[in-house]
């Protein structure tokens, strides 16, 4: 099924399994969301479970916090990545801090869904990648699936978590299809996964860039280069052990994400892996990402986003050491 459909099916399962699960957001009800991710849920579960809210992100998240205090498990949709900032105060000063502030007595089982990233030709404030801003905040878990199977199971695990989870959905991958086993036993939410074995260099990515890295590995293979691809899946916490094991084998690492390279998630990964693998590395850890500039108009986004050639150029630079 498509990634968007997998999220829809996962939300449906959660609504059926637990009467305390609620879905809230702008146009998530009768319309089914602008990407139709919540399509059909309002009809089947009613307006008390799938709630169309006013256009007020701060109010949406603030209400979700109150509901969580009363024992509910709200799943909040922020319609587009760039719309989350009116709610940023509620997320980082209230949602993220409540567990610590109460000395562990208060749980905050809130999931905030954020469609993010570019590649769909959208207008301003609709194609950003703000994941590092949330990963920096203690008390928040931050994840991003790259395929339909992970989208399904990671949503289940996020809803079941007693901690707040920021769930970034790669909107350019909404229509990518993959097999989804709804009866599988998923691995832990915050573990990375090697999705392609290799020996010469490791590519680490999450969300929308995992597919690109697999395409890069295919292209490199035609030149006799063997690249390993690691799907990070979780941005906070990061599964450094899996990355380290891969780098100790390949001795080279490139981190790829759509967000700007400057102070992006790749910076932390590069620093940690350099500390952990200093005597294994044969080249500095490289990063490929967006530029340190506002996201451009749609007609220029292909110049802004990492692509096959930019990642392959980084592969050439790494292997040249």
Automatic annotation (TrEMBL):
Keywords: Oxidoreductase, Thiamine pyrophosphate. SUPFAM superfamilies: Thiamin diphosphate-binding fold (THDP-binding) (SSF52518), TK C-terminal domain-like (SSF52922). Its EC number is 1.2.4.4. It holds the Pfam family Transket_pyr. The keyword Transmembrane does not apply. Gene3D superfamilies: 3.40.50.920, 3.40.50.970. Its cofactor is thiamine diphosphate. CDD domains: TPP_PYR_E1-PDHc-beta_like. It comes from Streptomyces lividans 1326. Residues 1-176 form the Transketolase-like pyrimidine-binding domain. It comes from the Bacteria. This is Branched-chain alpha-keto acid dehydrogenase, E1 component, beta subunit. GO terms for molecular function: branched-chain 2-oxo acid dehydrogenase activity; magnesium ion binding.
